[in-house]
Amino acid sequence: MRKLLICTIIALCCCACNAGVKQYKLEVVKEYPHDAHAYTQGLFFDDGQLYESTGQYGQSSFRKVDLTSGKVLRELDFGRKYFGEGSVMLGGNLYILTWTNKVAFVYDASTLEYKQTYSYPREGWGLTTDGTSLIASDGSSKIYFLSPEFKLERTLNVKMNGRPLRLLNELEWIDGKIWANVYTTDMIVIINPKTGEVEGKIDCGGLLPDKLRTPDTDVLNGIAVDPQGNIYLTGKNWPRLYEVKLVKN
Description:
Elements: H1 6-15, E1 22-33, E2 40-46, E3 49-54, E4 61-65, E5 72-77, E6 84-90, E7 93-98, E8 103-108, E9 114-119, E10 127-129, E11 134-137, E12 142-146, E13 152-157, E14 159-160, E15 163-164, E16 168-174, E17 177-182, E18 187-191, E19 198-203, E20 220-225, E21 231-235, E22 240-248
């Protein structure tokens, strides 16, 4: 699944010259329980509340989650034919992408009641917002700025050290920059939303210790920032969610 030159991309991520790209590692501030059966696709806070969308056919859902306990407070489940992806709230609406179904769902943000479905012309991966536009990834080196009606506004070509950086996955808007998980890796990149240049690279290796990994544990995926600016990370089927801060190399 998603065999998009993965080996080549990992090699580029590891071997490319990093001149001009700031290097960071993580320091764990606090850890929280996370549903180890949640195949995390989208993670975000809205008005101080944590939300999460999950994937896999027959298991895709959208969840309102208690941060402290990891308990699911409310859950929307999707039909078996849908593979849920990134999610975000904007302008009183909740937007949820699907992977290859070529549709996006819209719900009322306060009630989580279904409103409508939009046609979506590409694979859905990550989704975030700058407060005006929807910002989406599709697993390529491109990021798309969309209107709330899913009209294309502009396309951002993401490059690291002059080379296209593919496999951009879950997204988060933090301090005027786009943070993106790079699928299959332990790397998060910080992207300039005007130029597409990667300005920072975060090494998340070892965030989830080996002793907590099982055969079902999958890759790092899930970035959220709370109203106080605290940053949270998790992964697909991870038993923990981490509050972290950056440490410059």
